[in-house]
UniProtKB/TrEMBL annotation, chain A:
It comes from the Eukaryota. This is adenine phosphoribosyltransferase. InterPro entries: Ade_phspho_trans, Adenine_PRTase, PRTase_dom. Belongs to the purine/pyrimidine phosphoribosyltransferase family. Pathway: Purine metabolism; AMP biosynthesis via salvage pathway; AMP from adenine: step 1/1. GO terms for molecular function: adenine phosphoribosyltransferase activity. Its EC number is 2.4.2.7. NCBIfam families: apt, PRK02304.1-3, PRK02304.1-5. HAMAP family: Aden_phosphoribosyltr (MF_00004). It is found in: Cytoplasm. One of its GO terms (biological process) is purine ribonucleoside salvage.
UniProtKB/TrEMBL annotation, chain B:
It is found in: Cytoplasm. NCBIfam families: apt, PRK02304.1-3, PRK02304.1-5. This is adenine phosphoribosyltransferase. One of its GO terms (biological process) is purine ribonucleoside salvage. GO terms for molecular function: adenine phosphoribosyltransferase activity. GO terms for cellular component: cytosol. Residues 109-227 form the Phosphoribosyltransferase domain. Its EC number is 2.4.2.7. Coiled coil: none annotated. Pathway: Purine metabolism; AMP biosynthesis via salvage pathway; AMP from adenine: step 1/1. Keywords: Cytoplasm, Glycosyltransferase, Purine salvage, Transferase.
Length: 182, 244
């Protein structure tokens, strides 16, 4: 269940704005499209507010956003809570000194990169993406942050696909989501 | 094998700049900047010039009005320049160090928000991917929609596409059909304008569906690449101008 004890009235408004597109990027996948949420200024604001209300007093010093939809949510959250924003990117996008973490895809693997000096052992980090499916990308993100000594406080996503059990791959770290899609 | 370029990060606390990356220069508003100096081949220089809006009549409008906004200097100095990325000869303007400086990042967004908040803007279009970092906070603050403009095959459902030229070959930018409506007033956001190819394609896409682009807004301009000329009638607003 999404983790609001009493369902925040804003959640329903957010959920209805997410568009489900069948068979994208391939047959059988029900793609959760958040771009329709972004077209509704009130629903988008509510989304960010819900995360900000949760995290602003938790002493988060870094919000790490996963390219590219994690940038859309992570950046406003970072600004609102006064944290640094650190983009976690696909290969070869970040200049300068980076570390990378590989993760599995259904076929093959991919890689997530982070600037080495962006985060250090004093930092408390929040990882943000639009959606958690299998948890592979979030797990790679957490590993990058841990490797530089940061403490990963929590992962936050707009949407969870609970049947894919991504939550179990987060090594015991809490996951906060607004909406579940079953 | 991964090529790693060692380049010290600008510390957000100390704002130290390594000797390899010259400190950006700030000018009194009342005279135009001297030309940037090219040093001998072993070291290249990037100088940051800030033009007064009076001198900038043919240039893009800068964030400086009659008095230079004090926030600009801090923003400019938080941007890291990486030589020879993604290939030799390119001085890459890295905004990730700006994002690590919470005050500078906040000021960056505030400068755009102050400019656009009362202009009836209903659409903020952000170009993938660094436009996704600056666009959404601006959209949220001014109560506009955020419309991502994406590389091919990322957006599900019906899209319209616009091709544009690269140095070698072409690329394509896409937007959702129905994201915007005719008559809406939009701004287009990206971190940087270089040749202007991407922004020009974004303008064409939005104009095709009847949207009025009020302005293109970027953190950084590389004026020598004359990107502004590709934007046609659409004005350009930037916070900092960097001579390559």
């Amino acid at each position: 269940m999404s983790q609001n004890e009493v369902n925040d009235p804003r959640i329903d408004g957010i959920k209805t704005k997410i568009r489900v597109v069948p068979d994208f990027p391939k047959k059988g996948i029900m793609f959760q499209d958040i771009t329709t949420l972004l077209l509704d200024p009130k629903a988008f604001k509510d989304t960010i507010d819900l995360f900000v209300e949760k995290y602003r007093d938790m002493n988060i010093s870094v919000v790490a956003g996963i390219e590219a939809r994690g940038f859309i949510f992570g950046s406003p959250i970072a600004l609102a809570i006064g944290a640094k924003f650190v983009p976690l990117r696909k290969p070869k996008k970040l200049p300068g000194q980076i570390i990378f973490e590989e993760y599995e895809l259904e076929y093959g693997s991919d890689r997530l990169e982070m600037h080495v000096e962006a985060v250090d052992s004093g930092d408390r980090a929040l990882v943000v993406d639009d959606l958690i499916a299998t948890g592979g990308t979030l797990c790679a993100a957490m590993d990058l942050l841990k490797r530089v000594g940061a403490e990963v406080v929590e992962c936050a996503c707009v949407i969870e696909l609970p049947e894919l059990k991504g939550r179990e791959r987060l090594e015991g770290k809490p996951l906060y989501v607004l909406v579940e899609y079953r | 094998m991964q090529t790693i370029i060692i380049s010290p990060l600008v510390s957000p606390r100390l704002c130290l700049v390594s000797p390899l990356v010259p400190r950006n220069q700030f000018l009194n508003n009342h005279h135009r900047a001297p030309p940037s100096i090219r040093l001998s081949n072993h070291r290249s220089t990037t100088s940051l010039r800030l033009f007064s809006s009076a001198a900038a009549s043919r240039d893009s409008e800068m964030a400086t009005e009659d008095v230079q906004d004090p926030r600009i200097a801090k923003i400019a100095s938080s941007i890291r320049v990486i030589p020879d990325f993604p290939k030799p000869g390119i001085m890459f303007q890295d905004i990730t160090t700006l994002l690590l400086d919470t005050e500078a990042f906040k000021d960056t967004i505030a400068l755009f928000v102050d400019r656009y908040k009362d202009k009836g803007i209903s659409v903020v279009a952000g170009v993938e991917a660094r436009g996704f970092i600056f666009g959404p906070p601006i959209a949220l603050a001014i109560g506009a929609k955020f419309v991502p403009m994406r590389k091919p095959k990322k957006l599900p459902g019906k899209v319209i596409s616009e091709e544009y030229s690269l140095e070698y070959g072409t690329d394509t930018i896409e937007m959702h059909v129905g994201a915007v409506e005719p008559g809406e007033r939009a701004i287009i956001i990206d971190d940087l304008i270089a040749t202007g190819g991407t922004l020009a394609a974004a303008i064409r896409l939005l104009e095709r569906v009847g949207v009025k682009i009020v302005e293109c807004a970027c953190v950084i301009e590389l004026p020598e690449l004359k990107g502004k000329e590709k934007l046609g009638e659409t004005p350009l607003f930037v916070l900092v101008s960097s001579a390559a």
